[in-house]
């Protein structure tokens, strides 16, 4: 891909501000969704703060050579529920969140040490393009339902699905048009323009609805702005709410079993994301800065992020898609997004404004974001010979398992769709490796 800004390029300050805001908008919905799903008093602003700090740790470990943002991981949702479900009180559950992230992060550290001494060739053999490509495609396809669900959802009870659809499609259409035909700076910030366009249309519908008394026209909820009690406020950090006195051996084992297996699965997603990002930026990130550094950055960043925000972090496909669409790989933009996330988490009006962005508008933009993730995956295995049974069956298994939404649970541990597809794809590829040996 012909990049407008390379990894080490430094755009002008004004551009960096816009690029950072765009990255922030791309990852915001998912980052604050995880604490909302878990409940138990978890704070969206704390999750934002944790994501920002975790991303800074990642950038430091990778020597600012990998342009991706770390946000709240959906893969650990089942593990996080286990932390509260196995706790005697909610405060002990918060301690469990931190312990779980520590266990998961240590898995990354151990794998990073293995890679340091054994290299990455074994990974290339275990996960060739016919495995990684379809898996990356599934990452996007598995999120398709979320995008369409948001696209046709109103935040306000009684709001029309059709009005929501119009607002979302406006956001999508403007994003695509600006990205394709925009001039200079506009072409680099299509998501900001698209989201603002959708927000404006939703606001116009809300105004008309209020004037005419037609509640169906209102799909945007301004209550977060109305209910602000202050301008500046520190988030409810997880470490301040954790009660360590009630943690015993049985609870530690519960947390260990809930988090560690999932960490191995998320490691596979880490590989897929960095393979995908490598194809976009034209640099093999598994070699430079190296898989050891990306794993340490992801693992330690997740520990630090959870200490503040409660949510283990992971590299975000939305961030990677943002890099692909805008062709801006400058890590300066990621630094800006990380600091913006920290600052926004403490500015109540900004957090409130982000919370008022209608789900349908974000859904419209995510149609493009998730679609780019899938398209990137297809591109990665376009040269694979599918006339060979080994390749054909490997890709087939990954696609059907992924699109079918297969998940497997072992007690409190849940192996999610992408991980199931990747694991079965690897097993299929290894099982049929005899075909290649016979040809040779």
Describe the protein in words.
Helix 3 runs antiparallel to helix 13 (249-281) and helix 4 packs antiparallel against helix 14 (286-309). A two-stranded antiparallel ribbon has the order 1-2. It has a two-stranded antiparallel sheet with strand order 3-4. It contains 21 helices and 4 strands. The model has no long low-confidence stretch (mean pLDDT 87). The chain is mainly α and 440 residues long. A hairpin with a 2-residue loop joins strand 3 (408-410) and strand 4.
- By helix and strand content, what is the structural category? mainly alpha
Cα end-to-end separation: 34 Å
Uncertain spans: none
Side by side, the strands of the main sheet go 1-2
Mean pLDDT: 87
As a percent range, the share of strand residues is under 5%
Q: Topology as H/E string?
A: HHEHHHHHHHHHHHHEHHHHHEEHH
What's the helix and strand layout?
Elements: H1 13-38, H2 44-61, E1 70-72, H3 77-85, H4 90-118, H5 121-126, H6 129-142, H7 144-151, H8 161-181, H9 185-188, H10 190-212, H11 223-226, H12 238-241, H13 249-281, H14 286-309, E2 313-315, H15 317-326, H16 331-346, H17 348-356, H18 359-380, H19 389-404, E3 408-410, E4 413-415, H20 417-431, H21 433-439
Antiparallel strand pairs: 1-2, 3-4
